[in-house]
Amino acid sequence: MNRQVLTYEIGDRLYINVTNRCCNNCVFCIRRTEKGVGYNLWLEKEPAAEEIIKSAGDAGRYSEVVFCGYGEPLMRLDVVKEVAAELKSRGAVLRVNTNGQASLQLGKNVPVELRGLVDTVNISLNADTPEKYVELCRPALGAKAYPALLDFARECKLHIPRVVFSVVQWPGVDIEKCREIAHSMGVEFRLRKYSG
Ligand code: SF4
Question: Is the full-model pTM beyond 0.90?
Answer without folding.
Answer: yes
